[in-house]
């Protein structure tokens, strides 16, 4: 076990009926690194990512958060989830709350932050992603790119130690992909620990410290972005890259 | 001939409503009916959402095992028996030995009855909320109850508001069996006048028309609400 891992999955397996979505995957995310996970559709990327904050309960294997086994029934998973931010493909903003309320609800309720502090933090983050003027808008009044930026800063309001992204740009119109990726690159540069499932190979090239290629529930290849893209070892990665690039 | 008809009508009107201040049976009855309907509806919504919460929690997490059994029994019994029997049993059996306000009994009885129907409506409302909302809530660290209350319930409520209005309209008509425990609601008021004046046409038709007017009004309001929700819906989820 590497003491520097914020999150470490050890031999994690998750089945849906007969399908082995994740099949004995071990991988860690070290502090400050950006781990990018790529692979064909249905290869288990999302399921693996969701095992890291227990949105899916692994069938076997362990997930350690700072060394604590969060698959254990003895811990309160909600306390750990507060430290593990997640961003979804479809944003999942709360439609009945303003942008600001989306961002302050959890810190105020779960971390007992004073409203003024929560608002201050939220406004600072909104400014950082260029959306301070949209604080009182409702999600339906935002573009897709704006929604995803709000979803990212909503997660950041909890001051997580690690951020999980599941295809954060896949539901965006092409012209809005850039604005979401820019926020993520900015985060990566700022030292945030991140795991990102994405089909954006340029993002992987630019921002990843490490890239994992998954297929059929397993990690097939793992390397630095330069090496992985320039010199894919397995035939499956080769054919995947040929299709996607 | 037509003249005679109107003369009779006027006579009838005076006999049934003016003489002896009999209109008060209608007016007071209407107040009772509205009171019972409003409070029973509120009680029904509270019960219904709690039951729906227990049932969906059980479905999604396997928790609340005993509560779920109790809720299921409640739904089976209340939906499986006539509301008249329920109000009779509550009045004469459960509260039989104590002197208790009949309006209160009617509110309890119809609230419990309506709750069983609201429960199914609320359940479908909770189910209709996008799964991503549950996931976003959980990923932020909300526990199940906090998430249901702050994130899911408001959206579920909005989704089923039209169905709840329809339940309210049904409830309004159903309260007309209050007379079984001699509570003087609108229907009973008309019936009392009939039994005094021995002229059924005017009081009974009038009462029916008042129910019809109320139902038409609430149906109209529901339709308006539904249109507004549909408009906001389009913006809501895009
Ligand atoms: N909730 C579920 N119930 C049943 N099967 C599921 C469920 N979630 C995922 N699966 C199955 O598990 C496998 C892995 O799915 P997963 O969503 O993790 O793949 P993915 O790599 O994220 O794919 P994509 O790129 O399309 O998002 C697939 O075969 C999928 O059909
Ligand atoms: Mg996926």
Write the layout of secondary structure elements.
The complex is a heterodimer of chains A (about 240) and B (about 240).
Chain A: E1 5-16, E2 19-30, E3 34-38, H1 45-52, E4 60-65, E5 68-69, H2 77-81, E6 84-87, H3 99-110, H4 115-128, H5 144-156, E7 162-166, H6 174-189, E8 194-197, H7 201-207, E9 210-215, E10 218-223, H8 225-230, H9 235-244
Helix pairs in contact in A: 3-4, 3-5, 5-6
Chain B: H1 2-18, H2 23-61, H3 65-80, H4 83-94, H5 102-128, H6 131-140, H7 144-174, H8 186-197, H9 201-236
Helix pairs in contact in B: 2-3, 2-5, 2-7, 2-8, 3-5, 4-5, 5-7, 6-7, 7-9, 8-9
Adenosine-5'-triphosphate (ATP) binds near residues 39 and 47 of chain A.
Task: Record keyword descriptors for this entry.
heterodimer; A: 245 residues; alpha/beta; six-stranded mixed beta sheet; four-stranded antiparallel beta sheet; 37% helix; globular; B: 238 residues; mainly alpha; MetI-like fold; 9 helices; 84% helix; elongated; binds adenosine-5'-triphosphate; binds magnesium ion
CATH superfamily of chain B: MetI-like
Succession of helices and strands of chain A: EEEHEEHEHHHEHEHEEHH
Strand order of the largest sheet of chain A: 6-7-8-3-9-10
Secondary structure class of chain B reads mainly alpha
Give a description of the structure.
The complex is a heterodimer of chains A (245) and B (238). Chain A has helices at residues 45-52, 77-81, 99-110, 115-128, 144-156, 174-189, 201-207, 225-230, 235-244, and strands spanning 5-16, 19-30, 34-38, 60-65, 68-69, 84-87, 162-166, 194-197, 210-215, 218-223. By secondary structure, chain A is α/β, with parallel strands linked by helices. Chain A has a six-stranded mixed sheet, sandwiched between helices. Chain A has a four-stranded antiparallel sheet with strand order 2-1-4-5, covered by helices on one side. In chain A, helix 3 packs across helix 4, helix 3 (99-110) packs parallel to helix 5 (144-156) and helix 5 (144-156) packs parallel to helix 6 (174-189). Chain A is globular, with a radius of gyration of 18 Å. The mean pLDDT of chain A is 95. Chain B has 238 residues and is mainly alpha-helical. Chain B contains nine helices and no strands. Chains A and B meet through helix 2, strand 6, helix 3 and helix 5 of A and helix 6 and helix 7 of B. Adenosine-5'-triphosphate is lined by residues 16, 19, 21, 39, 41-47 of chain A.
């Amino acid at each position: 076990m590497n003491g520097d891992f914020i999150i470490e999955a050890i031999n994690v397996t998750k089945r849906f009926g007969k399908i082995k979505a994740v099949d004995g995957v071990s991988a860690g995310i070290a502090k400050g690194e950006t781990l990018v996970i790529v692979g064909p559709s249905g290869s288990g990327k999302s399921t693996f990512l969701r095992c890291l904050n227990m949105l899916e309960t692994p069938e076997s294997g362990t997930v350690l958060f700072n060394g604590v086994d969060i698959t254990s029934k003895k811990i309160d998973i909600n306390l750990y989830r507060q430290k593990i931010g997640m961003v979804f493909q479809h944003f999942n903003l709360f439609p009945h709350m303003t942008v600001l309320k989306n961002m302050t609800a959890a810190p105020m309720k779960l971390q007992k932050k004073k409203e003024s502090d929560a608002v201050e933090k939220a406004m600072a983050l909104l400014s950082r992603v260029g959306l301070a003027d949209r604080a009182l808008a409702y999600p339906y009044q935002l573009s897709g790119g704006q929604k995803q930026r709000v979803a990212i800063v909503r997660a950041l309001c909890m001051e997580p130690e690690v951020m999980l992204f599941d295809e954060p740009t896949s539901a965006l119109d092409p012209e809005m992909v850039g604005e979401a990726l820019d926020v993520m690159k900015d985060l990566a540069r700022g030292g945030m620990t991140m795991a990102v499932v994405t089909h954006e190979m340029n993002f992987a090239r630019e921002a990843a410290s490490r890239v994992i290629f998954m297929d059929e529930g397993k990690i097939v290849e793992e390397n630095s972005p330069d090496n992985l893209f320039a010199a894919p070892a397995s035939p499956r990665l080769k054919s995947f890259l040929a299709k996607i690039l | 001939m037509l003249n005679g008809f109107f003369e009779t009508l006027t006579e009838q009107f005076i006999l049934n409503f003016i003489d002896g201040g009999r209109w008060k049976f209608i007016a007071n009855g209407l107040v009772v009916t509205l009171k019972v309907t409003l409070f029973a509806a509120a009680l029904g919504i509270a019960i219904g959402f709690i039951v729906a919460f227990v049932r969906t929690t059980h479905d999604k997490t396997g928790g609340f095992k005993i509560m779920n059994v109790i809720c299921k029994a409640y739904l089976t019994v209340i939906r499986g028996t006539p509301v008249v029997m329920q109000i009779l049993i509550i009045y004469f059996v459960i509260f039989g030995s104590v002197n208790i306000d009949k309006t209160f009994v009617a509110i309890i009885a119809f609230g419990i009855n309506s709750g069983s129907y609201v429960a199914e409506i609320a359940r479908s409302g909770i189910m209709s909320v996008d799964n991503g909302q549950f996931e976003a809530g959980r990923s932020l660290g909300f526990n199940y109850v906090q998430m249901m209350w702050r994130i899911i319930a408001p959206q579920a409520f909005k989704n089923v508001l039209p169905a709840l209005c329809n339940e309210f309209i049904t409830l309004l008509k159903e309260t007309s069996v209050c007379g079984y425990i001699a509570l003087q609601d609108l229907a009973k008021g008309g019936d009392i006048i009939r039994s005094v004046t021995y002229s059924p046409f005017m009081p009974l038709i009038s009462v029916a028309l008042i129910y019809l007017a109320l139902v038409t009004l609430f149906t109209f309001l529901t339709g308006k609400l539904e249109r507004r929700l549909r408009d906001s819906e389009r913006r809501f989820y895009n």
